[in-house]
TrEMBL record:
Keywords from the named record: Sigma factor, Transcription, Transcription regulation
Family that this chain belongs to: Belongs to the sigma-70 factor family. ECF subfamily.
Species per Swiss-Prot/TrEMBL record: Chitinophaga solisilvae
GO biological process: DNA-templated transcription initiation
Molecular function terms, GO-annotated: DNA binding; sigma factor activity
Listed name of the protein: Sigma-70 family RNA polymerase sigma factor
Keyword flag Plastid: no
Domain (RNA polymerase sigma-70 region) ranges: 25-93
Residue intervals of the RNA polymerase sigma factor 70 region 4 type domain: 125-177
Length: 182
């Protein structure tokens, strides 16, 4: 069976809620998506994160997925859009932070500063409460991925588990956090 036919089979299985097919599709297309993403953007960590987010989004809406004839082209297009969105977001964030830091003394009143600090504390408190509902293993892997910025491969090496297990654990933890933080 050709790679395209295999990917089509996996896609159909994902559309029917098969999580293992999602991982198989991920494993089958990851090297191609990585090469494609690196051609668009030289930031390998951003590309890897976008690929992971792409598959998390696919799984998050598996019930709404439509039949696709060329899975690889579909995934390339989705990755490209996701990368463009992330790069635009980073550019906006960088500009906003630069503008804010340059003008913060002139533009922010004392009351505005207090409100921002309180909002930040509320978000931190909500995140802390949500993190407490995770298992110790999920908490550890979330810390490694998002606070220390390790790749899935580095996390697997550090925790003596497979990349797939690290991915699964982080996926489940992120899903739980999203549900709790809504």
């Amino acid at each position: 069976m050709s790679t395209a036919a295999t990917n089509n089979t996996y896609w159909e299985q994902v559309r029917h809620g098969d999580k293992q097919a999602l991982f198989a599709l991920y494993n089958n297309t990851y090297p191609h998506l990585l090469r494609f993403g690196l051609k668009l953007c030289g930031n390998d960590e951003l590309v890897k994160d976008c690929i992971t987010q792409l598959f998390l989004q696919l799984w998050g809406r598996w019930q709404q997925l439509k039949p696709v004839t060329n899975i690889q082209a579909y995934l390339f297009t989705a990755l490209k859009r996701h990368l463009i969105d992330q790069l635009a977001y980073q550019a906006r964030t960088h500009t906003a932070v630069s503008n804010w830091s340059e003008n913060e003394e002139n533009e922010l009143s004392y009351e505005e500063i207090i409100i921002r600090v309180q909002q930040d504390e509320e978000v931190r408190a909500r995140l802390h409460r949500a993190m407490q509902s995770l298992t110790p293993r999920q908490t550890e892997l979330i810390r490694l991925k998002f606070f220390e910025g390790l790749t899935y491969e580095q996390i697997a090496d550090r925790t003596s588990q497979t990349v797939k297990t690290a991915y699964n654990t982080i996926y489940d933890a992120v899903k739980t956090l999203r549900r709790l933080l809504k």
